[in-house]
Write a structure and sequence with these properties.
The protein is mainly α. It has a domain of 27 residues. The protein starts with a helix and ends in a 15-residue tail after the last helix.
C-alpha cells in the first residue's frame, strides 16, 4: 500500500467546539441588536442641542 493511500484512508476527528454551533450565530445577532438599540437611543441628540451649534433660528434664547 502506498503512502498516499494510507493518508487517504486515515479518518480525521473534528475538534470539539466550545459551545453548540447555533450560538455562533445567536451571540453576534444579539450583539448587533443591542448596538442598534444604543444607536437608536441617540437618534435625536443633535436636534436637542442645536442651539450649541448656532443652527437655531434667531430670536430663541436657550440658556
Amino acid at each position: 500500500m502506498s503512502l498516499l493511500a494510507v493518508f487517504a484512508a486515515e479518518e480525521h476527528e473534528l475538534a470539539p467546539l466550545i459551545m453548540d454551533s447555533y450560538w455562533f450565530a445567536v451571540i453576534p445577532a444579539a450583539l448587533f441588536i443591542f448596538l442598534g438599540l444604543v444607536v437608536w437611543s441617540f437618534r435625536d441628540v443633535a436636534n436637542r442641542h442645536s442651539h450649541k451649534t448656532g443652527s437655531a433660528p434667531h430670536g430663541t434664547d436657550h440658556h
